[in-house]
Write a structure and sequence with these properties.
The complex is a heterodimer. Chain A is mostly helical. In chain A, 56% of the residues lie in helices and 0% in strands. Chain A starts with 31 loop residues before the first helix and ends with a helix. In chain B, helix 3 packs across helix 4 (75-83) and helix 4 (75-83) crosses helix 5 (85-91). The chains are: A mainly alpha, B alpha/beta.
Chain lengths: 115, 214
């Protein structure tokens, strides 16, 4: 009658000791937008708007799917953004408006990043 | 410049990430919006962001290599480093930040390797940003369970008599490995020794270069 829904006591990010394939050797150079995400995290957390634990909380609340389908700094900007909204630095409405404005500037990162 | 870099490698030997002239992604759109809002709200400035990027870009494994080479040549510094790596590296002028840094010394009988099973904690203030493999599921998952197999994938095969110790980093505590000084380097100056110290040797997935091929 009971379905097999055993939970082994870990969430997806707690992956130490689990089985996995060979360690990938691919390496990429960080692009400007990724470096900017890193800088925003360091600056905003350094000024007390949130903590590294806040960053990790949101990352860990993402599904395992996000780990597989989003890049590292894509997950980071999603988490930085959520932490900043929770901290009241700006509102969801302000973010939505600004993202629309950004997209309206052009179809490439270079165009959209230039006001 | 051609728009397609797929067949090209950067000076570091890695493929280029898509350039700024590639289609805007949703997450890039969010980064631009968040950055602009933070500037408008007075949280930061464009100059401060650029300066932070410059600071991060300037951090690289040569900083760690200088620390290792000094530990190899200055016994008092080695003792200080093993006692309190944060203080010892700060004293050398490195901005280690609030994180606690712990130095792990490899010996003839013990080899240390560093991982962050939960996320990607890395001694970034000393070595720069972590390599992609350090953040991979495979490295995070397997290193604590089958370190010798993982090390073998990196070309490091240790004798069975060598104890392998795996250290799992945390958000507040980072490790750096002090590899064993290569034989045949007696009398070398610290600056020359530093050229033998690789990034991977300070994570534990590599060994220093041999003086014969350096």
């Amino acid at each position: 009658m009971t379905k097999n829904t055993t939970f082994d006591g870990r969430r997806w990010h707690d992956m130490g000791g689990t089985a996995a394939g060979p360690v990938p050797t691919d390496q990429h150079d960080f692009s400007l937008w990724e470096k900017r995400v890193d800088a925003l995290m360091i600056i905003a957390s350094g000024k007390g708007h949130f903590t590294v634990d806040g960053l990790r909380r949101v990352l860990e609340d993402m599904s395992e799917d996000a780990f597989e389908t989003m890049t590292y700094y894509e997950r980071w900007i999603a988490s930085v953004n959520q932490n900043l909204i929770e901290a009241g630095v700006y509102t969801t409405a302000e973010l939505g408006q600004r993202m629309s404005d950004v997209a309206a500037r052009g179809t490439t990162y270079g165009e959209a990043a230039s006001e | 410049m051609p728009h397609d870099h797929h067949d090209h490698l950067s000076p570091s030997g890695h493929p280029y990430r898509p350039d700024d002239d590639h289609p805007l992604t949703y997450w890039q759109q969010m980064e631009i919006a968040v950055r602009e809002l933070l500037i408008e709200k007075g949280v930061t400035t464009a100059q401060e962001i650029a300066a932070q990027i410059d600071t991060m870009d300037a951090r690289n494994p040569s900083h760690g290599a200088a620390v290792v080479a000094r530990a190899w040549t200055d016994p008092d510094f080695r003792d200080d480093l093993l006692q309190d790596a944060s203080a010892a590296t700060r004293e050398m002028g490195f901005d280690i930040g609030p994180m606690r840094l712990i130095a792990l010394e490899n010996t003839d009988t013990e080899h240390n390797v560093v991982v962050c099973t939960l996320c990607s904690c890395y001694p970034r203030n000393l070595l720069g940003l972590p390599p992609d493999w350090y953040k991979s599921r495979a490295y995070r998952a397997r290193t604590v369970k089958e370190p010798r197999k993982v090390l073998a994938e990196f070309g490091v095969t240790l004798p069975d008599t060598t104890t392998v110790r795996v250290h799992d980093s945390t958000a507040d505590m980072r490790y750096v490995v002090i590899p064993a000084r290569p034989a045949g380097t007696e009398g070398w100056h610290a600056d020359d020794l530093a050229t033998l110290v690789t990034r991977d040797s300070m994570i534990g997935t590599g060994l220093p270069k041999s003086p014969d091929i350096a």
